[in-house]
Structures are given as C-alpha cells and as structure tokens.
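ugh ok fine here u go
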Amino acid sequence: MIALTAVALSVLACSVDGDPVRVPDLAPRTVDASAFPYGPGVAVPDAQIHNAVADITFTPLRSQNQPAECTPAPVDVSGAQVRVGPGGPAGGTVTVMLARAPNTFDDYVTGLRECPDFELGGTVGTRVLTNVGSVAEDTVESGRTLSTDGRPYSRVYELVAQRDGVRLYVQNRFSGDELGADERSAMRNLFETAYAKAFDG
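structure:
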C-alpha cells in the first residue's frame, strides 16, 4: 500500500527518447476549497476539465483566435487542477487553476502584451481586450473585457504566476463594470494563498 501511494503522488510520462520522467502531481499543490473568499471552491470534474481550461486560458478547443498568433500555446490538460467558487458582490465566479505550462513566464507575458485585442475562436464575434497591469519576477496582473458588437458582457480580473514549468491562474469573472476595492483585495489574498501552496510547499 505504501508503494502504491508513493507512485500515486507522481505521474509518469515518457520523454522524447522513451525514458520515463517524473511529472509532479499538482493536486497536493492546489489551494484548499476553504481559501476561496465567497464560498468553497469546487473541483471541476475530469469530464469538464478540457472545456474549463479552454475558457480560463482563452485557448479554443477546435479553432484559433484571430489573429492566429493570439492563440495561446495550450497548457497541459493532463493533471491540471481547477477549482471554481462563487464570486462576491460583482457576481460571477472565482477560479483557481494549476497546470504545467508549455512555455516560459516571459513568453506568457509577451503574449498578453502582443495581443491586446483579438477575436476569440469558436465564438460568434466575441472580442477580448486585455490590459496588462503590474508585472513582477514571476507574477502578472491583468484585466480582460469580453464584448460582442462593441457591447461588453463579461470581465476578468486575473493574476498569474509561474515557476519551474508550473503555471497558476487566479481569475474573477464578473458581469459588472469593475471589481470593488474589497473584492480586489480578496482576490489578491486568494492568489497569495494559492501561490504559497503551489510553489512554497
């Protein structure tokens, strides 16, 4: 039983030359449900993970964004951990995702900056406007506005961090004009907790 438990804590993958390499199990590094500020975060079922990851990362499942270079490199869905909880006064949802990243943190930030306005693939005319905020050594804050026919219908306040090939997303999706100061503070607190759990052990 001890041996089986040890194996379960690390997923085995194959490298290009066929040798097994250890891939970290992200479940123990994902923030607890009780850390969500407005109600418990619920794990997304495996059957819905692909759709959830596509929504979080703005990476369509079966198409490309326009322009095509604004389609992000997909994170590794295998082993991705996603938890979703209720939003605060602005409504909507709060989401935390931990996944293995396909590129560097600098690549991710460059993608944000080079694609401030794109059409989301797989939708009928949904545009995504991105405003990049503060950037630190391994964290970035950004805001996104989703609109159709020039009318905003959803906004995303997003905090992202990356270390050692693992990327953390914390998002608040809401339909109002702006998050209040208290909600932003609550999101930063959740991000700090999720960051510590993911990267500081």
